[in-house]
Write a structure and sequence with these properties.
By secondary structure, the chain is α+β, with helices and mostly antiparallel strands. The protein contains 24 helices and twelve strands. α17 packs across α20 and α17 packs across α22. The relative contact order is 0.11. One of its GO terms (biological process) is tRNA 3'-terminal CCA addition.
């Protein structure tokens, strides 16, 4: 089967953002797409963004000239943290290293989540042991990564990540003057080592260290204060932080969306004005970051923030074009069908209960097809049921005709209901499935993606495609059962409970079940007034 115009079918390194098409976002206007400057010289754009920020905040004082945060050592019990909140595999690794005489800490987002009484996505360990010593301490262990090597310790079906102070120290590249800017007069050598490590973190709320044996949380950057203020702020000046690692822009968006936090003024400024720099990331990394945003229970908030700060046009131009055409403003609090679909996805997921990336890509393709060609709500209902049962349209029609709930008529994508006979209904359902596969092809076609925002001269033109061929084919399989014959031997999932392990692995019955549930709940919401 020939796959037309797919980016991944054309060349080995198939996902490119053409340099001549990269633009830098300027000031966002609420009535239209953001005003954009062509990016001819990224360095000059960065300097302009920094000067613009410094000038606009000269009177009130910039965050760039930061006061040294007070170093704090807090009792974990006072923060509501107990060692019982740490999962068993992580405790085994901590105990294994501690018994050999090494210092061990939990670091990063897991400490933040424990303080917030949230379930951490995972636990990261930092130790005084060298990585080679960690290797010797555990039978199933490997060093991964070149730029920032860490150890993966395998325990049963779990991987625990362990990093070393020594490795982090070698990567410490900040200037000497800046390095000593925050030191306390009464600090000891261990404080200094811990503080140096904290300065390498992306955000203050991710720079906390928890010693589970001393039951102390170390805060050298004001992270606890920012958690209390529900604020996302970079550890070092945002302009420097995002130039060092542009992926921090996407992580900042993801964490703000997941926690419902707001950005500090300086961080918000440089998220918006350095957004173009994410084009430097390889496509595998972009897919990973997008999956973290959309597959872990905070997809709707992530899409809103990507749109608000001008990143949606670069990452998902097709969806950005939908927002523009529907008159969706940058700070709009209203919803639409795309956001409602992802809101219903979020209700089923959590940081420790993610979905496979094929599910959220399927939702994007489904919505694109429906926006291009609005359908009767009964057609959508039959389609979702047919996806669920493996393509048995007759059974899907019989069930759908019994629906007595009202559909959400606020969505442009849904037509006024009509009286459709079986054959017409079947034809339209199969046409919708074919349209979704066509939309998926468009989402992986560099030329089509680049034209999505072409009608808006002020918008950036991005031909960014980060969906690999294997994932494209996997998503296509979700809908093939509706286009062709019902799958032989397919057993639809029984019951409404989701098997999250299967969903994360991309099990076809589980993905289809969850997809159908999300679509049906969006078209026929329970709380429709």
């Amino acid at each position: 089967m020939a796959i037309p115009r797919l980016a991944f079918a054309c060349k080995p390194r198939c996902f490119s953002l053409r340099p001549s098409l990269v633009h830098c976002l300027g000031k966002v206007g609420f009535g239209s797409v953001a005003a954009i400057q062509p990016l001819d010289d990224s360095e000059s754009i960065i300097k302009h963004a920094i000067l613009n920020y410094d000038h606009s905040h000269a009177k009130e004082g910039s965050e760039s000239s930061r006061r040294k945060p007070e170093w704090k050592k807090l009792n974990a019990k006072d923060l509501g943290i107990s060692t019982s909140m740490i999962d068993r595999p992580t405790r085994k690794v901590l105990n294994g290293l501690k018994k050999k005489g090494y210092e061990v800490y939990l670091v990063g987002g897991c400490v933040r989540d424990l303080i917030l009484k949230r379930t951490p996505k995972d636990f990261d360990i930092l130790t005084s042991a060298e990585l080679k010593e960690v290797m010797r301490a555990f039978s199933r262990c490997q060093i991964v990564g070149k730029r920032f090597p860490i150890c993966h310790v395998h325990l049963d079906d779990t991987i625990v990540e362990v990093s070393s102070f020594s490795t982090c120290g070698r990567n410490f590249s900040r200037g000497f003057n800046y390095e000593f800017e925050g030191l306390d007069d009464g600090c000891d050598e261990k404080d200094y080592i811990r503080w140096r490590n904290c300065l390498q973190r992306d955000l203050t709320i991710n720079s906390l260290m928890f010693d589970p044996y001393a039951r102390i949380v170390y805060d050298y950057t004001g992270g606890i204060k920012d958690i209390k203020k529900a604020k996302v702020r970079t550890v070092i000046p945002a302009s420097t932080s995002f130039q060092e690692d542009c992926a921090r822009i996407l992580r900042a968006i993801r964490i703000a969306a997941r926690l419902g936090f707001r950005f500090s003024r300086e961080t918000a400024h440089f998220v918006k004005h350095l957004s173009f720099s994410i084009s430097r990331l390889d496509r595998g990394r972009l897919l990973m970051e997008m999956n973290y945003m959309l597959a872990y229970g905070s997809a709707e908030a992530s899409l809103r923030l990507l749109w608000k700060f001008g990143l949606l046009e670069l990452l998902l131009p097709i969806q950005a074009a939908y927002f523009v055409r529907r008159g969706f403003r940058r700070r709009d609090t209203r919803s639409n069908m795309l956001l409602s679909l992802f809101s219903n996805l979020d209700k089923l997921l959590a940081p420790d209960r993610p979905c496979h990336s094929s599910l959220w890509i399927a939702i994007l393709a489904f919505h694109k097809a429906l926006f291009d060609h609005p359908r009767d709500p009964l057609v959508v209902a039959v389609f979702s049921l047919a996806v669920y049962n493996g393509g048995d349209i007759l059974e899907a029609v019989n069930i759908a005709r019994k629906i007595t709930k009202s559909y959400d008529n606020s969505f442009y994508e849904l037509l006024e209901p009509r009286d459709l006979d079986f054959q017409t209904l079947k034809d339209e359902v199969m046409d919708l499935a074919a349209s979704i596969k066509g939309a998926l092809s468009k989402m992986t076609d560099e030329y089509f993606v680049s034209q999505a925002m072409a009608g808006y001269p002020q918008a950036p033109i991005s031909d960014l495609v980060f969906i690999p061929l294997a994932l494209y084919l996997r998503v296509s399989r979700i809908f093939e059962c509706v286009i062709g014959r019902a799958e032989r031997g397919f057993v639809s999932k029984q019951g409404s409970e989701i098997d999250y392990e299967s969903l994360a692995m991309g099990s076809m019955p589980e993905v289809r079940h969850t997809f159908a549930r999300i679509v049906f709940d969006t078209v026929y919401p329970l709380n429709l007034s």
